[in-house]
Amino acid sequence: MQRAALFRGGDAQMAAGDLGELLVPYMPTIRVPKSGDRVFKTECAFSYDSPDSEGGLYVCMNTFLGFGREHIERHYRKTGQCVYLHLKRHLRQKVPGASGGALPKRRNAKLFLDLEISSDLNSDDFEYEDEAKLVIFPDHYEISLPNIEELPALVTIACDALLSAKSPYRKQEPDSWEEELQASKHAKTLVQLDNGVRIPPSGWKCSKCDLRENLWLNLSDGSVLCGKWFFDGSGGNGHAVEHYRDTGYPLAVKLGTITPDGADVYSFDEEEPVLDPHIAKHLAHFGIDMLQMQVTDNGLRDNDIKPRVSEWEVIQEAGVKLKPMYGPGYTGMKNLGNSCYLNAVMQAIFSIPEFQRAYVGNLPRIFDYSPLDPTQDFNTQMAKLGHGLLSGQYSKPPMKSELIEQVVKEEHKPQHNGISPRMFKAFISKGHPEFSSNRQQDAQEFFLHLINLVERNPVGSENPSDVFRFLVEERTQCCQSRKVRYTDRVDYIMQLPVAMEAATNKDELIAYELKRREAEAARRPLPELVRAKIPFSACLQAFSEPSNVEDFWSSALQAKSAGVKTSRFASFPEYLVVQIKKFTFGLDWIPKKLDVSIDMPDFLDITHLRARGLQPGEEELPDIAPPIVIPDDPKDHMTNHFVESLDIDESSVMQLAEMGFPLEACRKAVYYTGNLGAEVAFNWIIAHMEEPDFAEPLVIPAFGEVASSGAAALGAVGLDNQPPEEMVAIIISMGFQRNVAIQALKATNNNLERALEWIFSHPDPEEESDPALDTMDMENNANANILAETGSEGPRIKDGPGRYELFGFISHMGTSTMSGHYVCHLRKEGRWVIYNDLRVCASERPPKDLGYIYFYHRIPS
């Protein structure tokens, strides 16, 4: 049957009396969704088609997977499944006299849950009509629903259960859909204290802490207090809720949301957002005139836009009229609730040709060879996301108002604007303690998590993540003997420290800080922000300078001594990712962000950072391992379950924590790698990020267990004379073959640092290996395939010149990685484009000096 005939629609209707007989052969394949079954009735497994799409969505009555019209035949051919529930949403013109509303009316509301309403259309003139049919392949017989009298009871029950099933993403998106607000029961009788409080137009801060974001004005006594952490990225210490518990004052309005049309009001007593019909009167009590208030899309008043110094305004280019961009490569992504970090990273990733070719270029092959459940396949979901961003299918200009009536009379074709990466996020975050939550995350940490998944799921002969890989040469020198040791490691990101001491406007910073403190003490509006200006050259210099090695053991002295370490590039990657280390920890271990401006160059030359290896006149440190120190009372020591009593290099822990990794994971990484430094611990983190207990506190096993496992983790010889699996995984994570890792550890008595040196001093290891090792399947070691195996030449690299050109950057707004918002800027077709979740616009003032992660492409020689 030809495709055109297959989808004609109603020309294959069956007589009512034949329905039961028609479905008899297919009854064994029809299932009723049970508790725990995931029903995908809002999104195609291979595309972003939905019931709103022109062809609707086909849901398999056996697997409950959804498929768009372009992909349903693939599933039918692969599985032989014949019965599908076809879901379609139509947009109709309202009949004369139909009541309007805030949103288009749904006639069959119970059929489709969690479907979004298009905001592009006039709700007074149009309404939605939902339609469901059973479709039987390959002849495309259609049975309209409901048809309870004629259908077998099992089919009726299955259809009803499928139509009423909850979204499989509801756990990940609580509160992400809007509901109609109700007037608060306290609004009419709210008591307001006559205490003379007047709220200034700006300069707000919590009266109990220093926070200036997510502030709420209590409508009873005028207190300005911070709220809790919310899914939209705003954060606080919960002082507004504490104040309600102490006083019982029920209503509060969010500062920054007040406009002539209303404001965001929350009822602590009713525990939900509410409407306050008397909001103008309640605000006037504290000197706020609603008619004079106006906010931007970001909750910032127009008066606050000038002089455009807040990073929220500058990075999002607030106050500037931006031209929307549409078409291939200009597709926005919906924020699912603190998923902007994912959106920003994926926009940058799929602007790189190697990733485009690997996933979108191989899309037919990836889809054809996908598993029976493509929602659980990494390559399928990457190809789906890449196609959604690059095809232009979901980035079309909005329909002009004068053409709406004409189009609707024929048959409305909804215009898709952006994609919702719910299925993608659900899969790649599965089992991860941080990314599976609705909390804000570090974009740099997610980038590494994504690279880890790309490495573990090869898509072809070329691994697209190779474009980021490079070798770092570590030169460690004993300060007393002057002898040196050279080691190499694999990395994906160049981390630049912020050289605060090199600020070029120190006098202005000192003057600003004095004015700021005076304004806070006098409760006056804050002065215009002064941001530290840091030369990029100073950050690059700080990167190349030697750093002290804590707890350094010198093999030349065979004792602890002072040591220094420098890092250089043993190879230059095709794409250089530069992270500005803006996030740090205060003395109270609370993450903080350095609000600085760095003059990042459009063209970058780091050729001078090329590694040179052992130089004439340098003498290498002897290849001697440090002695294993056994405590006097090992039982008492090893049975202590508190991390504080362990000998853990806290400086390495801090270095890893500043990268955005969970603190407990950093402690475990340093502990299990024997305090060999942050670089080795970093590779342990990459190898263990997928484990369920990744961020759980470190628990030391009892002494009896340590003899076989704990000691092995510290480098002792195992009882079976096999290298510890932890160390094997770390070396594999650097890009070496498993047999090479085991051979190196055996040759060095399971000393991790010496094993790495052995590998680089033996470029052609012996081919023979323990026969038992050859029979080990990679699946027996979850970490063994994190990085694809390579030849004897060592890690995969794409070396070349060290000259680069900037083509993109990711910026962060907010005070820490636990809150705020991410935006991506990319240079496409000769101009800069801003990707701010669903909004994709031509950039007028790209804030290149305020970025967090920068993407450079190598300039061909």
Describe the protein in words.
The strands form 7 sheets. Strands 13, 19, 23, 24, 25, 26, 27 and 28 form an 8-stranded mixed sheet that branches. This protein has a 5-stranded antiparallel sheet with strand order 2-1-3-4-5, covered by helices on one side. A hairpin with a 5-residue loop joins strand 1 (57-60) and strand 2. The chain is globular and about 90 Å long. The two termini are 55 Å apart. It is built from 26 helices and 28 strands. With 861 residues, it is of the alpha+beta class.
CA-based shape = globular
Quote the beta fraction: 15-25%
Ranges with pLDDT <50 over ≥5 residues? 1-16, 98-111, 171-179, 230-234, 294-308, 402-414, 633-645, 701-720, 765-793
Our Rg estimate from Cα atoms comes to 30 Å
What gap, in angstroms, lies between the N and C termini?
55 Å
**Count of alpha and pi helical runs:** 26
| Mean pLDDT across every amino acid position | 79
Q: Roughly what percent helix?
A: 25-40%
* Structural class by helix and strand composition: alpha+beta
**Beta strands, count:** 28
Biggest sheet layout = 8 strands, mixed
Main location: cytoplasm
GO biological process, one term: protein deubiquitination
Enzyme class: hydrolase
Protein name: Ubiquitin carboxyl-terminal hydrolase
